[in-house]
Amino acid sequence: MAAPRPVWTRVVVRVCIILGLLALGLGAALSLASLQPYFYRDAARIGSSLDYDRTMDTNQLSRPKFEGVLESITVRTNGPDLLIEMPVPRELEGYADNAMFDYHHIAFGNALECPEGRVWLDHVAVAFGSFPADKLNEYSVRLPARFYDRQLKAVSSDRVPEFARQDWYRTLDFRGLYPAVSFGLRGELRQEAKVLAFHAFDARTHESLDSGYSWGGDLAKDGVNAKLDLQLWHAAPVLLVVDMSLGPAQVIEFPAQVGSTAKFPEGELQLVVKADDMENRSTSHSDKITLKVEPKAYNREPKTTCMIFACLPKAYSMPLDFEYQDEQGQTLKSQGGGTSSFFINQTVMGEASRIRSVRVRYYPNRKRLVFHLPRIPGLPEPNRNVKNLFDVRLPFVRISRDYEFRDLITHLTQMQFSPQAGGALLSLADPITYNNITVKELLEKYAQLSGPTYGAEIDQERLTIQIVDQSLNARAQRFFDCIKKRFH
Predict the structure, then answer these.
(1) What is the pTM of this model?
(2) Do 304 and 230 touch, CB atoms closer than 8 A?
(3) Tell me: the pLDDT tens digits for 120-131?
């Protein structure tokens, strides 16, 4: 029989447990109250997003890497839908085309000067406000935009180029989470140009700031306007990244027959679907082996034709334009329906039997323009000199879903937010709104909505936030779990 432990040992153990519980409680209570300023303090993240993989060896992407892939595509019916399956080689799963671009960093107020001409950021437009009470369940509201010139000075809308004065650009869609921002790009070019993508990054951390974009216009003519929901409420320096490709265009023509292929310098296309009365949108499901596209069948007038192309090595960033011709050589009207990783969807106005040939215009000279902006103008003045991201103030926010709440906290703190550690996700029956609220207060609101005993725990070294149960029983359980891990 083991000898009993001395009394002093039991006392020491109990004192340690009490001190541990007190430390846990004190740490939880101070986790939000004692945040130290850590504004952009994690230099290790710099460069992780913006430069992608510029050192990629383009030789590894030569055509033999994906020879035979297009020939293995299968198309079959799945109820009312078509199911397209394409085996994807592993070397294409993580493919990035960044090595294909010439990089151009453009100082604030300057323009890209190149043999093909000039490109510059002409103006910025910003809109945010509040939702009317009767529109809280709407996806977004249209709000008047405030315009700023290339030096970020406020100007009236009649001082911006004519293409930006259209009603669609004079007002912006505000979704209630982040400022709606529009960037106007202009060019004086001697070649055709195709804009491929817009992105925005925090210039200090290179954290991505955009949650998608839309754009319209012709850079070689009037100009281009790109609209982004910018995940930013304070006066941070911003990098606006514009991917574009210039001519002279190389024209590739091939028959509009399923199975026809066309090759361009770094890849190839195959027409896999040509069908009347099919929706040009698709849903994509991607795993490590198969990517599936399911166009939805429907009836509409006038008749349209859905054209789906498989594109390697990737579809969404290829500098390609499509034209379709009938038997008389006349160009048919068409519009893009979007792209996924390996598929391009197009809608042609007219029946499939009228489409004789496909003409692809390939723009070979890719450029990545990085515009350096000292800030986004027009954001709330109290956030101009903020020293801590938790002190950033939102003039208004409308939240409809748990993921929107989490998205706000994640992007505005630039930390990893893990509310799952605190239990079930929030269930919001109706949208909730807050006025003039800080990010810290938003986090406190999320913790309160999670339960009366829940709170936030923040690790400033690891840049993580967790919502955890801070009741005495829960803290004690975490403490004993920690002791078990330490001694077992």
Answers:
(1) 0.81
(2) no
(3) 999 999 999 999
